[in-house]
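Per reviewer request, we include the raw input and output of the structure prediction for the construct analysed in the revised manuscript.
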Amino acid sequence: MKTKPLYGLAVGVSFIFRHLPACVSYRIADTVGEILFLTWPRVRRNMVKAVATLLNKNTNDPEVRKTSRRCLCNFAKYIVDMFRYACPPRDFFEKNFKTTGFEHLDTALAEGKGIILVSFHLGNLDLGVRLLSSRGYAVSAIVDNLQSNQLDAFLQNPRKTGGAKLINVKEASAKLLEVLRRNEILALMIDSPNCRKGVKVKLGNKWVLFPTGAATLAIRTGAYLLPCGMIRSSNTTFEAIIGKPIEYQPTGKLSEDVHAITQKTVGALEDMTRQFCDQWFVFHSLIKDEPQETDT
């Protein structure tokens, strides 16, 4: 099979970052993040608008600009993580991870109806799925496969470490109910760039379109909805956070129930994300009703 250029580049970069000292790798990531912030205006605009919305500040506020810059630095570190931890040592998850709120996970699983773990693109959720698998939880994650089979396999295979199951977003509708009926964990992110249909709910002081799949699944199956995030606490250590279940009482009016549950879910994730705003990766135009900044 002929090796495609991007795949060959990924393999080469992976080799370099696996052998460089961590302090050097993440210093490079910081530099790359700074460059991206200065040279990628579309992403900078979208990131600044998202951070400003979460912090309830103006897009020109210095804190917003500084936080958005750190977002891109942390995203570059996330990319380094993908390469450094493709095949981590056996004690990696035990030594480098702190967990908060896992009792919510165990209590919900005891009910036997499955769990829907929902998150924004907050921190390194790939490692979060792998952490759950390493601890014996049956977890499936929805992923968007790349067109290049070689590169896709290179990036997706580490996510399967420990037995995590990956569900292609195009095949998701046929498999999600099965996961929950087996009383397993389904992990998904709801600040998707591909959301075309959904409901508008409040994020900060803005109305933002979010998908309704998580809320609809919860109503149909009785599965618990738990907000979560995987936070970088230092260059090489992380904290997995699982919040309390989203509380709701269905009224029987599906559209109203879906809207109310989605709003509660977004509200819980907003509270969590605001504490770690510099690790929220929003490259697409999630916030659409804010005037664009003028690039200089």
